[in-house]
Write a structure and sequence with these properties.
CATH superfamily of the largest domain: Probable tRNA modification gtpase trme, domain 1
Order of helices and strands: EEHEEEHEEEEEHHEEEEEE
GO biological process, one term: iron-sulfur cluster assembly
Keywords: Transit peptide
Shape: globular
Organism: Salinisphaera japonica YTM-1
Strand order of the largest sheet: 11-14-13-12-15-16
CATH architecture of the largest domain: 2-Layer Sandwich
Helix content: 10-25%
Oligomer: single chain
CATH topology of the largest domain: Gyrase A, domain 2
Strand content: 25-35%
Radius of gyration: 19 Å
Protein name: Folate-binding protein
Length: 290
């Protein structure tokens, strides 16, 4: 039986959305439908530009007072600035809460909520996330920074690796605007609602869903050596670029695992990083039907 691991997720930030028009505002911006959420639920969603290219992947957490968006800090400032541009005359407030709130990641917490479920304990929110391919349960606690344990581990390697092993992609600064949501497996992660109304890039996303063919998608891979940086290129044996690294984490003393968008027709071939390290294809935690 594995023991619980708790980590301060300092690389993640929080954006608070509130106001009388906040629910409608988010519904008109995100690929998933916040009308389906209540204070006991949360889900994954994407925010796209007009060309359907993903600008962020975000965990959307509903509360009775507001919505919290959890996303990487490195893209947070730009996201907040762009979201505010869409507010116009709506009664919506977009506020960064990353310093006021702490995010604590848990692996194999015995009291972790079910996937997409939110529970409340005092002033803390607990959200259950998708498990890893080998069944480790992931969850996050959202708590006031003043109440967070200051002795928590700050090395996020275990958490980053668990996110990779759950097959959940992240968008970094190096990969913003590079992929439509389906290339990021977001339809298989229930992060796209194809029945809801318009949002930026919706026509492109819908066209691929109903008429197109997915030629690139997220794969989980392994390699020898240090983790490659987000945005690193992947090549086939002919030297043709065929993929892009999304995120990576060290898995052992001399091994790493990663998520990358790779051309589907290269999945049965040898692919390499730009430094010639060979990549091995690994199972994902969910089905990816053709």
């Amino acid at each position: 039986m594995t023991s619980q691991t708790d980590t301060r997720l300092s690389a993640l930030g929080v954006v608070r959305i509130d106001g009388s028009d906040a629910e409608r505002f988010l519904r008109n911006q995100l690929t998933n439908d916040v009308f389906r959420l209540g204070p006991d639920r949360h889900f994954l969603a994407a925010w796209c530009d007009a060309k359907g290219r993903t600008q962020m992947i975000v965990q959307v957490v509903a509360t009775p007072e507001c919505w919290y968006l959890l996303l990487p800090r490195e893209i947070l400032d730009g996201v907040v600035k762009r979201l505010k541009m869409y507010v116009l005359r709506d009664d919506v407030r977009v506020t960064e809460e990353s310093d006021a709130l702490a995010l604590i990641g848990h692996i194999d917490a015995p009291t972790a909520p079910d996937v997409n479920t939110t529970t409340t304990e005092g002033d803390s929110l607990h959200i259950g996330l998708a498990s890893t391919v080998d069944g480790r349960r992931r969850s996050i606690t959202i708590v006031d920074s003043t109440a967070a344990d200051t002795d928590l581990a700050s090395d996020t390697t275990s958490w980053d690796l668990a996110t990779i092993d759950a097959g959940v992609p992240q968008i970094a600064a190096a990969t913003q605007g590079a992929f439509v949501p389906q290339m990021l497996n977001l339809h298989w992660l229930m992060a796209i609602d194809f029945d809801k109304g318009c949002y930026p890039g919706q026509e492109v996303v819908a066209r691929l869903h109903y008429r197109g063919r997915l030629t690139r998608r997220v794969f989980r891979l392994g390699c020898i050596g240090a983790p490659p940086a987000p945005g690193s290129d992947i090549f086939d044996t002919d030297g043709t670029r065929c993929g892009t690294v999304l995120q990576a984490a060290r898995a052992g003393d001399d091994t790493s695992r990663l998520l990358a968008v790779v051309a589907v027709d290269r999945a049965e071939r040898v692919v390499k990083l730009d430094d010639d390290r060979e990549l091995s294809f690994l199972d994902l935690a969910y089905a990816t039907p053709a």
